[in-house]
Design brief:
Blueprint: E1 3-4, H1 11-28, E2 34-40, E3 49-53, E4 56-68, H2 77-87, H3 89-99, H4 101-104, E5 109-113, E6 125-134
Helix pairs in contact: 1-3
Length: 135
C-alpha cells in the first residue's frame, strides 16, 4: 500500500529486493536451516501488480523460498520464515527507500503466506511461498 498509482516494479528493483531478502535470511535464519534459494515467481517471470485503489497501489512480490533442514523441523519452516521476515520488515522498508525513493518513501511492507499449489519435495528440502506486500 501507499505505492504511487501506476508504479511498475522494475526488474532492477525486483532483483535488488530478492538480493536483500536473501542477505537478510542468510543473516537471521537459525543454524537449523540452510537457505537454498530466494526467487520471484509470477506469470512468465513477471511481477503481478494488484489492488489499485484511489491514487495508491499495493504491489505484491510473490517469492519462492527454498530451505534445507532436519526433517523434524520442516513442518515449522514456513511459519519460521514468515516470522523472520516479519521481524525485519522495517529493514526491508528502509532498503526499498534506498532503491527507489519516489516509489517507496511512504510504502509499508507486510509478509504473509502466498497460496500456491505446493510442489512435492523431499522432506529435507522444502519450498515455501511467501508474498511481500509493498504498500
Amino acid at each position: 500500500e501507499n505505492v504511487p498509482s501506476g508504479y511498475r516494479l522494475s526488474r532492477e528493483d525486483q532483483s535488488s529486493i530478492l538480493r536483500f531478502v536473501k542477505e537478510l535470511l542468510d543473516e537471521y535464519l537459525s543454524n537449523s536451516f540452510q537457505l537454498v534459494e530466494v526467487a520471484g515467481i509470477g506469470r512468465n517471470g513477471n511481477v503481478r501488480h494488484l489492488l489499485r485503489s484511489r491514487r495508491l497501489n499495493t504491489v505484491s512480490l510473490p517469492l519462492r523460498i527454498t530451505v534445507r533442514g532436519p526433517a523434524d523441523v520442516s513442518d515449522f519452516a514456513l511459519s519460521y520464515l514468515i516470522e523472520v521476515l516479519d521481524e525485519h520488515k522495517e529493514e526491508l522498508s528502509r532498503k526499498l527507500m534506498l532503491f527507489n525513493w519516489l516509489a517507496f518513501n511512504d510504502a509499508t511492507v507486510s509478509v504473509d503466506v502466498y497460496d500456491f499449489n505446493a510442489i512435492s519435495k523431499p522432506v529435507e528440502e522444502t519450498e515455501h511461498f511467501v508474498r511481500l506486500k509493498l504498500a
